[in-house]
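Re-run requested by the PI after the first attempt was lost when the workstation crashed. Everything re-entered from the original request form. Ligand of interest: NAP.
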Amino acid sequence: MPGPGRSSRHLPADWQAAIQPPYDRSVTTPRRIAVLGSTGSIGRQALDVITHSGGQFQAVALAGGTNTALLAEQVTLHRPRYVHAPAPCAELSQAVARSGARFALPEEVAAAPDVDVVLIATAGAAGLLPTLAALRAGKPVAIANKEVLVMAGHLVRRAMREGGGELRPVDSEHSAIWQCLWGEAPGSVRRVILTASGGAFRDLSIAELASVTPEQALDHPTWKMGRKITVDSATLMNKGMETIEAMWLFDVPMSAVEVVLHRESIVHSLVEFSDGSVKAQLGVPDMRLPIQLALSYPQRMPEPAVPLLELAAVGSLHFAPPDTGRFPCLRLAMEAGQAGGTVPAAMAAADEVAVERFLRREIGFLDIPRIIERVLERHQPIPDPSLEEVLAADAEARRLAAAVPAGVSA
Ligand SMILES: NC(=O)c1ccc[n+]([C@@H]2O[C@H](COP(=O)([O-])OP(=O)(O)OC[C@H]3O[C@@H](n4cnc5c(N)ncnc54)[C@H](OP(=O)(O)O)[C@@H]3O)[C@@H](O)[C@H]2O)c1
Protein backbone atom coordinates (compact mmCIF):
# COMPACT_ATOMS: atom_id res chain seq x y z
CA MET A 1 0.00 0.00 0.00
CA PRO A 2 1.49 3.41 -0.88
CA GLY A 3 2.28 5.68 2.05
CA PRO A 4 0.22 8.84 2.53
CA GLY A 5 2.99 11.08 1.16
CA ARG A 6 3.27 9.14 -2.10
CA SER A 7 -0.41 8.67 -2.75
CA SER A 8 -1.31 12.28 -2.03
CA ARG A 9 0.73 13.42 -5.06
CA HIS A 10 -1.74 11.52 -7.28
CA LEU A 11 -4.85 13.08 -5.73
CA PRO A 12 -6.72 15.84 -7.60
CA ALA A 13 -6.89 19.07 -5.58
CA ASP A 14 -10.59 18.61 -4.94
CA TRP A 15 -10.18 15.14 -3.54
CA GLN A 16 -7.27 16.18 -1.38
CA ALA A 17 -9.37 18.92 0.16
CA ALA A 18 -12.06 16.42 1.10
CA ILE A 19 -9.97 13.47 2.22
CA GLN A 20 -6.46 14.39 3.21
CA PRO A 21 -6.22 18.10 3.81
CA PRO A 22 -2.89 19.60 4.77
CA TYR A 23 -3.31 20.19 8.47
CA ASP A 24 -1.20 23.27 8.97
CA ARG A 25 -3.69 25.32 10.96
CA SER A 26 -2.50 26.65 14.27
CA VAL A 27 -3.50 23.63 16.32
CA THR A 28 -4.23 24.95 19.77
CA THR A 29 -4.67 22.88 22.90
CA PRO A 30 -7.37 22.72 23.90
CA ARG A 31 -8.84 22.57 20.42
CA ARG A 32 -11.71 25.10 20.38
CA ILE A 33 -14.93 23.51 19.17
CA ALA A 34 -18.20 25.16 18.08
CA VAL A 35 -21.05 22.70 18.71
CA LEU A 36 -24.01 23.79 16.58
CA GLY A 37 -27.02 21.69 17.59
CA SER A 38 -25.62 21.09 21.09
CA THR A 39 -29.03 20.18 22.55
CA GLY A 40 -29.59 17.28 20.11
CA SER A 41 -28.48 13.66 20.20
CA ILE A 42 -25.17 14.25 18.37
CA GLY A 43 -24.59 17.57 20.14
CA ARG A 44 -25.01 16.04 23.61
CA GLN A 45 -22.69 13.15 22.73
CA ALA A 46 -20.14 15.66 21.40
CA LEU A 47 -20.25 17.54 24.71
CA ASP A 48 -19.70 14.21 26.46
CA VAL A 49 -16.62 13.60 24.28
CA ILE A 50 -15.38 17.14 25.02
CA THR A 51 -15.96 16.70 28.78
CA HIS A 52 -14.00 13.42 28.81
CA SER A 53 -11.19 14.58 26.50
CA GLY A 54 -8.78 15.33 29.33
CA GLY A 55 -8.62 18.98 28.29
CA GLN A 56 -7.91 18.24 24.60
CA PHE A 57 -11.16 19.89 23.49
CA GLN A 58 -13.09 22.91 24.70
CA ALA A 59 -16.65 23.90 23.72
CA VAL A 60 -16.31 27.60 22.82
CA ALA A 61 -19.66 27.96 21.09
CA LEU A 62 -23.03 26.30 21.72
CA ALA A 63 -26.15 26.62 19.59
CA GLY A 64 -29.51 24.95 20.08
CA GLY A 65 -33.07 25.24 18.84
CA THR A 66 -36.14 25.14 21.05
CA ASN A 67 -34.67 23.36 24.09
CA THR A 68 -33.38 26.56 25.67
CA ALA A 69 -33.53 25.15 29.23
CA LEU A 70 -31.00 22.45 28.33
CA LEU A 71 -28.91 25.01 26.44
CA ALA A 72 -28.84 27.19 29.59
CA GLU A 73 -27.52 24.19 31.59
CA GLN A 74 -24.87 23.52 28.94
CA VAL A 75 -23.80 27.19 28.98
CA THR A 76 -23.41 27.11 32.76
CA LEU A 77 -21.35 23.91 32.57
CA HIS A 78 -19.12 24.67 29.55
CA ARG A 79 -18.86 28.49 29.80
CA PRO A 80 -18.59 29.05 26.00
CA ARG A 81 -17.77 32.40 24.36
CA TYR A 82 -20.65 32.28 21.88
CA VAL A 83 -24.25 31.08 22.27
CA HIS A 84 -27.17 30.94 19.85
CA ALA A 85 -30.84 30.05 20.16
CA PRO A 86 -33.55 31.31 17.78
CA ALA A 87 -35.69 32.49 20.76
CA PRO A 88 -33.71 32.56 24.03
CA CYS A 89 -35.66 32.18 27.31
CA ALA A 90 -34.88 34.32 30.39
CA GLU A 91 -32.99 31.43 32.00
CA LEU A 92 -30.69 31.18 28.99
CA SER A 93 -30.09 34.95 28.85
CA GLN A 94 -29.10 34.88 32.54
CA ALA A 95 -26.78 31.88 32.01
CA VAL A 96 -25.14 33.69 29.07
CA ALA A 97 -24.65 36.87 31.11
CA ARG A 98 -23.28 34.94 34.15
CA SER A 99 -20.74 33.01 32.08
CA GLY A 100 -19.48 36.10 30.22
CA ALA A 101 -20.61 34.69 26.85
CA ARG A 102 -22.47 36.60 24.14
CA PHE A 103 -25.19 35.73 21.67
CA ALA A 104 -23.99 35.36 18.08
CA LEU A 105 -25.49 33.97 14.88
CA PRO A 106 -24.33 30.45 13.88
CA GLU A 107 -22.80 31.83 10.64
CA GLU A 108 -20.75 34.34 12.67
CA VAL A 109 -19.63 31.65 15.13
CA ALA A 110 -18.71 29.28 12.29
CA ALA A 111 -16.28 31.85 10.86
CA ALA A 112 -14.94 33.24 14.18
CA PRO A 113 -11.12 33.27 14.39
CA ASP A 114 -11.15 31.73 17.89
CA VAL A 115 -13.00 28.59 16.72
CA ASP A 116 -10.80 25.71 15.47
CA VAL A 117 -13.40 23.10 14.45
CA VAL A 118 -17.10 23.60 13.67
CA LEU A 119 -19.37 20.63 14.45
CA ILE A 120 -22.60 20.84 12.46
CA ALA A 121 -25.00 18.74 14.55
CA THR A 122 -28.22 20.58 13.76
CA ALA A 123 -30.97 18.65 11.98
CA GLY A 124 -32.39 19.64 8.60
CA ALA A 125 -31.74 22.81 6.62
CA ALA A 126 -30.59 24.84 9.68
CA GLY A 127 -27.01 23.63 9.21
CA LEU A 128 -26.55 24.91 5.66
CA LEU A 129 -25.50 28.54 6.16
CA PRO A 130 -23.06 27.86 9.04
CA THR A 131 -21.47 25.04 7.00
CA LEU A 132 -20.91 27.37 4.04
CA ALA A 133 -19.61 30.15 6.32
CA ALA A 134 -17.14 27.83 8.07
CA LEU A 135 -15.79 26.37 4.82
CA ARG A 136 -15.45 29.82 3.24
CA ALA A 137 -13.48 30.86 6.33
CA GLY A 138 -11.14 27.89 5.77
CA LYS A 139 -12.29 25.91 8.82
CA PRO A 140 -12.47 22.17 9.36
CA VAL A 141 -16.14 21.22 9.52
CA ALA A 142 -17.12 18.04 11.35
CA ILE A 143 -20.39 17.35 9.55
CA ALA A 144 -23.13 15.21 11.07
CA ASN A 145 -25.97 17.03 9.33
CA LYS A 146 -26.43 15.02 6.13
CA GLU A 147 -29.34 17.15 4.89
CA VAL A 148 -26.83 19.94 4.17
CA LEU A 149 -24.95 17.75 1.68
CA VAL A 150 -28.16 16.31 0.25
CA MET A 151 -29.64 19.78 -0.36
CA ALA A 152 -26.58 21.59 -1.57
CA GLY A 153 -23.56 19.30 -1.89
CA HIS A 154 -22.33 21.24 -4.94
CA LEU A 155 -22.41 24.55 -3.01
CA VAL A 156 -20.63 22.94 -0.06
CA ARG A 157 -17.83 21.67 -2.28
CA ARG A 158 -17.59 25.07 -3.97
CA ALA A 159 -17.28 26.82 -0.59
CA MET A 160 -14.60 24.31 0.38
CA ARG A 161 -12.62 25.01 -2.79
CA GLU A 162 -12.98 28.81 -2.47
CA GLY A 163 -12.17 29.07 1.24
CA GLY A 164 -9.84 26.13 1.76
CA GLY A 165 -11.99 24.53 4.45
CA GLU A 166 -12.32 20.78 4.88
CA LEU A 167 -15.08 18.30 5.65
CA ARG A 168 -14.69 15.59 8.25
CA PRO A 169 -17.51 13.03 8.31
CA VAL A 170 -19.29 12.33 11.58
CA ASP A 171 -21.90 9.87 10.30
CA SER A 172 -20.50 6.47 11.31
CA GLU A 173 -20.72 5.06 7.76
CA HIS A 174 -18.87 7.99 6.22
CA SER A 175 -16.32 8.06 9.00
CA ALA A 176 -15.69 4.40 8.16
CA ILE A 177 -15.25 5.15 4.43
CA TRP A 178 -13.03 8.14 5.27
CA GLN A 179 -10.78 5.91 7.36
CA CYS A 180 -10.70 3.18 4.67
CA LEU A 181 -9.55 5.81 2.14
CA TRP A 182 -6.65 7.20 4.16
CA GLY A 183 -3.49 6.52 2.20
CA GLU A 184 -5.33 5.30 -0.91
CA ALA A 185 -5.37 6.92 -4.37
CA PRO A 186 -8.89 7.89 -5.55
CA GLY A 187 -8.47 6.22 -8.93
CA SER A 188 -8.24 2.88 -7.14
CA VAL A 189 -11.76 2.99 -5.65
CA ARG A 190 -14.22 0.63 -7.35
CA ARG A 191 -17.19 0.82 -4.92
CA VAL A 192 -18.09 2.32 -1.58
CA ILE A 193 -20.48 0.07 0.31
CA LEU A 194 -22.63 1.59 3.03
CA THR A 195 -23.99 -0.73 5.68
CA ALA A 196 -27.57 -0.30 6.95
CA SER A 197 -29.02 -1.77 10.12
CA GLY A 198 -32.41 -1.86 8.38
CA GLY A 199 -34.13 0.19 11.09
CA ALA A 200 -36.96 -0.75 13.39
CA PHE A 201 -39.10 -2.48 10.75
CA ARG A 202 -36.54 -4.49 8.82
CA ASP A 203 -38.44 -7.77 9.32
CA LEU A 204 -42.01 -6.52 8.73
CA SER A 205 -44.16 -7.24 5.67
CA ILE A 206 -45.82 -4.45 3.64
CA ALA A 207 -49.15 -5.29 5.31
CA GLU A 208 -47.57 -4.91 8.76
CA LEU A 209 -45.80 -1.68 7.73
CA ALA A 210 -49.17 -0.12 6.90
CA SER A 211 -50.19 0.05 10.56
CA VAL A 212 -46.95 0.80 12.44
CA THR A 213 -47.05 3.65 14.97
CA PRO A 214 -44.63 6.52 15.64
CA GLU A 215 -43.66 4.86 18.95
CA GLN A 216 -42.65 1.68 17.11
CA ALA A 217 -40.73 3.68 14.50
CA LEU A 218 -38.82 5.54 17.22
CA ASP A 219 -37.60 2.30 18.82
CA HIS A 220 -34.39 1.73 16.81
CA PRO A 221 -32.72 -1.68 17.33
CA THR A 222 -29.07 -0.52 17.55
CA TRP A 223 -28.70 3.29 17.54
CA LYS A 224 -30.17 5.93 19.89
CA MET A 225 -30.72 9.03 17.77
CA GLY A 226 -32.98 12.06 17.22
CA ARG A 227 -36.62 11.47 16.17
CA LYS A 228 -36.33 12.51 12.51
CA ILE A 229 -33.28 10.34 11.75
CA THR A 230 -34.80 7.38 13.63
CA VAL A 231 -37.91 7.47 11.42
CA ASP A 232 -35.64 7.98 8.38
CA SER A 233 -33.78 4.82 9.44
CA ALA A 234 -37.05 2.88 9.54
CA THR A 235 -38.01 4.01 5.99
CA LEU A 236 -34.38 3.62 4.73
CA MET A 237 -34.50 7.29 3.67
CA ASN A 238 -31.59 7.84 6.05
CA LYS A 239 -29.55 5.32 4.08
CA GLY A 240 -30.67 6.87 0.81
CA MET A 241 -29.52 10.30 1.99
CA GLU A 242 -26.25 8.73 3.07
CA THR A 243 -25.63 7.55 -0.50
CA ILE A 244 -25.91 11.19 -1.65
CA GLU A 245 -23.74 12.30 1.27
CA ALA A 246 -21.10 9.74 0.18
CA MET A 247 -21.15 11.06 -3.40
CA TRP A 248 -20.32 14.57 -2.23
CA LEU A 249 -17.90 13.68 0.55
CA PHE A 250 -15.83 11.25 -1.50
CA ASP A 251 -16.45 12.54 -5.03
CA VAL A 252 -17.74 9.21 -6.37
CA PRO A 253 -20.65 8.73 -8.81
CA MET A 254 -23.91 7.19 -7.52
CA SER A 255 -23.16 4.14 -9.70
CA ALA A 256 -20.19 3.42 -7.40
CA VAL A 257 -22.26 3.62 -4.18
CA GLU A 258 -24.03 0.54 -2.83
CA VAL A 259 -25.97 -0.38 0.28
CA VAL A 260 -25.90 -3.69 2.12
CA LEU A 261 -28.06 -4.62 5.12
CA HIS A 262 -26.04 -5.50 8.18
CA ARG A 263 -28.22 -5.85 11.25
CA GLU A 264 -25.48 -5.88 13.90
CA SER A 265 -24.14 -2.34 13.01
CA ILE A 266 -20.58 -3.51 13.73
CA VAL A 267 -19.12 -3.09 10.22
CA HIS A 268 -19.73 0.61 9.69
CA SER A 269 -18.99 0.61 5.93
CA LEU A 270 -16.56 -0.74 3.35
CA VAL A 271 -14.54 0.32 0.31
CA GLU A 272 -13.70 -2.02 -2.57
CA PHE A 273 -10.55 -1.16 -4.53
CA SER A 274 -9.53 -1.79 -8.15
CA ASP A 275 -7.72 -5.04 -7.30
CA GLY A 276 -10.81 -6.49 -5.61
CA SER A 277 -9.44 -5.89 -2.13
CA VAL A 278 -12.03 -4.67 0.38
CA LYS A 279 -11.34 -2.60 3.48
CA ALA A 280 -13.89 -2.22 6.26
CA GLN A 281 -13.98 -0.27 9.50
CA LEU A 282 -15.48 -1.95 12.54
CA GLY A 283 -16.42 -0.79 16.01
CA VAL A 284 -19.17 -0.84 18.59
CA PRO A 285 -22.22 1.16 17.49
CA ASP A 286 -21.53 4.33 19.47
CA MET A 287 -21.50 7.76 17.81
CA ARG A 288 -18.93 9.10 20.28
CA LEU A 289 -16.26 7.23 18.31
CA PRO A 290 -16.74 9.01 14.93
CA ILE A 291 -17.51 12.31 16.70
CA GLN A 292 -14.23 12.13 18.59
CA LEU A 293 -12.23 11.26 15.46
CA ALA A 294 -13.71 14.21 13.54
CA LEU A 295 -12.61 16.51 16.39
CA SER A 296 -9.14 15.01 16.95
CA TYR A 297 -8.15 14.42 13.29
CA PRO A 298 -5.42 13.94 12.13
CA GLN A 299 -4.53 12.42 15.50
CA ARG A 300 -6.42 9.62 17.21
CA MET A 301 -7.11 10.02 20.90
CA PRO A 302 -4.81 7.90 23.07
CA GLU A 303 -7.68 6.26 24.97
CA PRO A 304 -11.00 4.80 23.69
CA ALA A 305 -14.14 6.87 24.27
CA VAL A 306 -16.35 3.79 24.09
CA PRO A 307 -16.33 0.10 25.11
CA LEU A 308 -13.94 -2.01 23.02
CA LEU A 309 -15.25 -4.33 20.30
CA GLU A 310 -15.07 -8.02 21.28
CA LEU A 311 -15.66 -9.94 18.05
CA ALA A 312 -15.81 -13.32 19.78
CA ALA A 313 -18.69 -12.02 21.88
CA VAL A 314 -20.46 -10.69 18.74
CA GLY A 315 -20.17 -14.21 17.23
CA SER A 316 -21.46 -13.75 13.68
CA LEU A 317 -22.10 -10.87 11.30
CA HIS A 318 -24.87 -10.91 8.70
CA PHE A 319 -25.22 -9.17 5.34
CA ALA A 320 -28.17 -9.07 2.91
CA PRO A 321 -29.39 -6.95 -0.02
CA PRO A 322 -31.85 -4.14 0.84
CA ASP A 323 -35.50 -4.56 -0.19
CA THR A 324 -36.52 -1.43 -2.10
CA GLY A 325 -39.99 -2.92 -2.67
CA ARG A 326 -40.83 -2.64 1.04
CA PHE A 327 -38.62 0.43 1.53
CA PRO A 328 -38.93 2.61 -1.61
CA CYS A 329 -37.30 5.64 0.07
CA LEU A 330 -33.87 4.14 -0.59
CA ARG A 331 -34.60 3.96 -4.32
CA LEU A 332 -36.17 7.46 -4.34
CA ALA A 333 -33.11 8.97 -2.70
CA MET A 334 -30.61 7.23 -4.97
CA GLU A 335 -32.62 8.35 -8.03
CA ALA A 336 -32.70 11.91 -6.67
CA GLY A 337 -28.93 11.80 -6.13
CA GLN A 338 -28.46 10.61 -9.68
CA ALA A 339 -30.76 13.36 -11.04
CA GLY A 340 -28.93 16.09 -9.06
CA GLY A 341 -29.78 19.82 -9.29
CA THR A 342 -32.66 20.78 -7.00
CA VAL A 343 -34.15 17.24 -6.92
CA PRO A 344 -32.34 16.04 -3.74
CA ALA A 345 -33.29 19.30 -1.94
CA ALA A 346 -36.95 18.83 -2.87
CA MET A 347 -36.79 15.20 -1.78
CA ALA A 348 -35.20 16.04 1.60
CA ALA A 349 -37.74 18.79 2.29
CA ALA A 350 -40.68 16.53 1.34
CA ASP A 351 -39.28 13.83 3.60
CA GLU A 352 -38.92 16.23 6.53
CA VAL A 353 -42.55 17.30 6.23
CA ALA A 354 -43.81 13.73 5.69
CA VAL A 355 -41.91 12.49 8.77
CA GLU A 356 -43.32 15.33 10.90
CA ARG A 357 -46.83 14.46 9.65
CA PHE A 358 -46.27 10.78 10.48
CA LEU A 359 -45.06 11.66 13.99
CA ARG A 360 -48.21 13.81 14.42
CA ARG A 361 -50.28 10.74 13.32
CA GLU A 362 -51.72 12.61 10.32
CA ILE A 363 -50.46 10.01 7.85
CA GLY A 364 -49.41 6.36 7.88
CA PHE A 365 -45.86 5.03 7.58
CA LEU A 366 -46.37 3.97 3.95
CA ASP A 367 -47.58 7.48 3.09
CA ILE A 368 -44.05 8.84 3.67
CA PRO A 369 -42.57 7.52 0.36
CA ARG A 370 -45.85 8.17 -1.45
CA ILE A 371 -45.80 11.85 -0.47
CA ILE A 372 -42.15 12.20 -1.47
CA GLU A 373 -42.86 10.58 -4.83
CA ARG A 374 -45.88 12.83 -5.40
CA VAL A 375 -43.80 15.94 -4.62
CA LEU A 376 -40.97 14.84 -6.90
CA GLU A 377 -43.43 14.23 -9.77
CA ARG A 378 -44.45 17.89 -9.52
CA HIS A 379 -41.00 19.33 -8.93
CA GLN A 380 -39.45 21.34 -11.77
CA PRO A 381 -35.72 20.51 -11.48
CA ILE A 382 -33.08 23.21 -11.88
CA PRO A 383 -29.54 22.03 -12.74
CA ASP A 384 -26.58 23.54 -10.80
CA PRO A 385 -28.88 25.70 -8.64
CA SER A 386 -27.84 28.78 -6.67
CA LEU A 387 -28.42 28.91 -2.91
CA GLU A 388 -31.60 30.91 -3.50
CA GLU A 389 -32.88 28.29 -5.97
CA VAL A 390 -32.11 25.48 -3.50
CA LEU A 391 -33.99 27.29 -0.73
CA ALA A 392 -36.91 28.00 -3.09
CA ALA A 393 -37.06 24.30 -4.08
CA ASP A 394 -37.01 23.40 -0.38
CA ALA A 395 -39.89 25.79 0.40
CA GLU A 396 -41.99 24.66 -2.57
CA ALA A 397 -41.50 20.97 -1.72
CA ARG A 398 -42.53 21.64 1.90
CA ARG A 399 -45.69 23.38 0.72
CA LEU A 400 -46.57 20.50 -1.63
CA ALA A 401 -45.76 17.79 0.94
CA ALA A 402 -47.98 19.43 3.55
CA ALA A 403 -50.90 19.41 1.11
CA VAL A 404 -50.76 15.78 -0.11
CA PRO A 405 -53.59 13.88 1.59
CA ALA A 406 -53.02 10.72 3.64
CA GLY A 407 -53.65 7.45 1.79
CA VAL A 408 -52.63 8.86 -1.61
CA SER A 409 -51.50 6.18 -4.05
CA ALA A 410 -48.05 6.61 -5.52
N1 LIG B 1 -28.15 10.96 16.13
C1 LIG B 1 -27.29 10.22 15.45
O1 LIG B 1 -26.83 9.18 15.94
C2 LIG B 1 -26.84 10.65 14.08
C3 LIG B 1 -25.94 9.85 13.39
C4 LIG B 1 -25.48 10.28 12.16
C5 LIG B 1 -25.91 11.47 11.61
N2 LIG B 1 -26.81 12.22 12.28
C6 LIG B 1 -27.27 13.48 11.68
O2 LIG B 1 -26.94 14.54 12.56
C7 LIG B 1 -27.92 15.55 12.51
C8 LIG B 1 -28.48 15.75 13.93
O3 LIG B 1 -29.12 14.54 14.34
P1 LIG B 1 -29.63 14.33 15.82
O4 LIG B 1 -30.05 12.92 15.91
O5 LIG B 1 -28.62 14.85 16.79
O6 LIG B 1 -30.91 15.28 15.81
P2 LIG B 1 -31.71 15.90 17.05
O7 LIG B 1 -31.51 15.09 18.27
O8 LIG B 1 -33.07 16.14 16.57
O9 LIG B 1 -30.96 17.31 17.29
C9 LIG B 1 -31.04 18.35 16.35
C10 LIG B 1 -30.37 19.58 16.89
O10 LIG B 1 -30.59 20.65 15.96
C11 LIG B 1 -31.29 21.72 16.64
N3 LIG B 1 -32.20 22.32 15.67
C12 LIG B 1 -33.20 21.72 15.00
N4 LIG B 1 -33.82 22.61 14.20
C13 LIG B 1 -33.21 23.81 14.38
C14 LIG B 1 -33.36 25.10 13.83
N5 LIG B 1 -34.31 25.38 12.93
N6 LIG B 1 -32.51 26.07 14.23
C15 LIG B 1 -31.55 25.81 15.14
N7 LIG B 1 -31.34 24.60 15.69
C16 LIG B 1 -32.15 23.62 15.31
C17 LIG B 1 -32.00 21.04 17.79
O11 LIG B 1 -32.31 21.99 18.79
P3 LIG B 1 -33.45 21.73 19.91
O12 LIG B 1 -33.43 20.29 20.25
O13 LIG B 1 -33.00 22.63 21.03
O14 LIG B 1 -34.73 22.19 19.29
C18 LIG B 1 -30.92 20.07 18.23
O15 LIG B 1 -29.91 20.72 18.93
C19 LIG B 1 -28.98 15.07 11.52
O16 LIG B 1 -28.72 15.64 10.27
C20 LIG B 1 -28.77 13.57 11.46
O17 LIG B 1 -29.13 13.01 10.21
C21 LIG B 1 -27.28 11.85 13.51
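Saved to the shared folder this time. The domain at 11-169 is CATH 3.40.50.720 (Rossmann fold).
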